[in-house]
Amino acid sequence: MTQDQHINEVLTQEVIRYSQVWEDHALLEEGLEITPNDRILSIASAGCNAFAMLLCEPEAVVAVDLNPTQTAIVQLKKTAIEKLDYPDFIALLGARPDGDPLRVFDSIKGDLPPAVATYWESNRQILEAGLLGSGRLEGYFSRLSRDLIEPMCPPDKLQEFLNSEDLDFQAAFFETMFGDPRFIEVFKQLTSQKMIASEGRDEVQFRFVNIPDVGQHFYDRFKYVCTRIPCRGNFYLEYLLTGRYRNLEQGPPSLRESNFKRLKELVPRLEIVTAGLDEVVNEREDGYFSKANLSDLFEYLSESETEGLLQTLATRMRTGGKLAYWNLLVPRHRPESLSEKLTRSPELSEKLWLKDRALFYRAFHIETVQ
User: Fold this and answer.
1) Rounded to whole angstroms, how far apart are CA atoms 307 and 78?
2) Is residue 226 within 8 Å of 178, Cβ to Cβ?
3) Are 293 and 324 within 8 A, CB to CB?
4) What is the pLDDT of residues 122-136, one digit of tens each?
5) Are 252 and 20 a contacting pair, CB within 8 Å?
6) pLDDT tens digits for 154-169?
């Protein structure tokens, strides 16, 4: 079995790896400069960023994932937006504590594609427990909140921190609460490569990682987000620390009531495909896609595999189109062999990454098709 086959087999397993998306949608919106003429290729994951980009009103968004469970999540959300009112929509996702997600699901399951309806009918317990917290990564976050944050940080103090726009206050709070050597030791243990591989991701997703202390990397990134970016409005940080959203209107764009009517109008432009990214690109005519959200896909690919996929995208996408993607623990970007096909934007990429509200990534890249 080749490594490429191995990672594809892991990613196609019918496991909910992510029930939400942990990449800052604002970087995509600013970096890709989405226009009404764009057709956007996007890693599907749990769909949050596909919906966020849809709100920029492009011509189309095609959400692609190898994992049929991930595309089943996106399809469920899409159908729910089309068929439900807002209170039932958030009840279905488990974002409303007094909601009845199974009743809501039964009201729309006949509108789902048959395979998707069958999946959710067979996994009703996931909906009953709350879809938003059902992914492996979200379950790992719950442990981090339960075992580390709750015992060491009083709820009232934590809420004061999360409401802050004062970086001096945030820095002082961080030093007091999260700079304690006991906190740092447990944080690094819980965010070590071994722990994340066993509870949040899969060991094969670390096959190109050579950072000696993964826990230290995540602690440093955690400190940056907590002390250099205002906490108020950072729903990524809020969910990591508390396991919930206090105010959905300040949460992910797809969960905000103020966006719901527009999403209803726009979701017909969303296409959901269970396939490999290169397969979807190659089956469309040249120039079909003008923008692409590649998530942190290259984290799992070798340098030669990365070059091959970028070559395909640079050849098949529209001239002047843009690619956006993150690096988590593995440094990847356009190689020099593709310098005549893709232009890097290091200054813009760095500027955007410094504003990244998510707590994980070491870099963000914007590249333009020549």
Assistant:
1) 33
2) yes
3) yes
4) 999 999 999 999 999
5) yes
6) 999 999 999 999 999 9
Tokens matching residue 335: 């190689």
Prediction pTM value: 0.92
Tokens representing residue 191 in the block: 């965010």
List phi, psi (to 5°) of 256. Answer: -85, 130
Which residues, listed in sequence order, are joined to residue 115 by a DSSP beta bridge? Answer: none
| Tally of CA atoms within 13 A in the half-sphere of 342 that contains its CB | 27
Q: Torsions phi, psi of 322, nearest 5?
A: -125, 145
Which residue has tokens 């969960």? 255
3-state secondary structure the chain: CCHHHHHHHHHHCCCCCCCCCCCCHHHHHHHHCCCCCCEEEEECCCCHHHHHHHCCCCCEEEEEECCHHHHHHHHHHHHHHHHCCHHHHHHHCCCCCCCCHHHHHHHHHHHCCHHHHHHHHHCHHHHHHCHHHCCHHHHHHHHHHHHHHHHHCCHHHHHHHHCCCCHHHHHHHHHHHHCCHHHHHHHHHHCCHHHHHHHCCCHHHHCCCCCCCHHHHHHHHHHHHHHHCCCCCCHHHHHHHHCCCCCHHHCCHHHCHHHHHHHHHHHHHEEEEECCHHHHHHHCCCCCCCEEECCCHHHHCCHHHHHHHHHHHHHHCCCCCEEEEEECCCCCCCCHHHCCCEEECHHHHHHHHCCCCCCCCCEEEEEEEC
